[in-house]
Amino acid sequence: MTAARTVHVAAGRRLVNRKAAQLLTEASTDPRSQLLASVSGPGGSGKSTLLENLAVVYSEAGIPVRTGRQVLQQGAVDEGTTVLIDDAHQWDDPELERIHRLVDGQPVNVVVAYRMWPQLPALNRLTTTLETHRRPVLLGPWNRDEVAAHTATTHGEPLPGSVVDRIFELTGGMPWLVQHALEAMSSRGRTLPQDPLEFGGLVDQVGYELERLAPDLRELLLALAVGFDPAGPMPAEVEDTLGGIDPLMSQAAAAGLILPEGSLPPLMRSVLLQTTPLHHVRTAQHALAGLLSTGETPDPTDVARGLAQSGLQDPRVASTLQSAGDSALATEPHLAATLYEEATAAGAPGVSTAARRAQAALATGDLEGAGRLVDPLLSQPEAPDKQRGADVAASLWAQRGMLARSAQVYRWVGAPAADASKALAAVVMIGTGDRDAARSLLAADRLEESPTLTNVAVSLMGQGVAESVGEHTERALPALVRASDMLTASGAAIPLPDSPAALAALVALHSGELSVAESVLDDALRGGQGGPAGRLRLLLLRAWVAMLQDHPDNAGAAIAEATAGGTCPAPRDELLLDALHVGLARRTDDMAGLVRAWERARGRLLHVAVDLYNLLPLGELAVAAARLRDSERLRPHLADAWALLDKLDQPALWSTPLRWYAVQAAILAEKPTELAPQASALVRASGKHHLAAVLASAGRSWVSVLAGRIEPRAVEESARALAAVGLTWDGARLAGHAAAHAEERKDMSRLLACARDLHPGTRGATTTEPNHPAQSTAAEHEPRMTVTTGKASAPEGPALSEREREVARLVLEGKTYREIGAAIFISPRTAEHHIARIRRRLGASNRSELLTQLRLALGEDGSQGP
Question: Could you tell me which residues belong to the region Disordered (predicted)?
Answer without folding.
Answer: 760-802
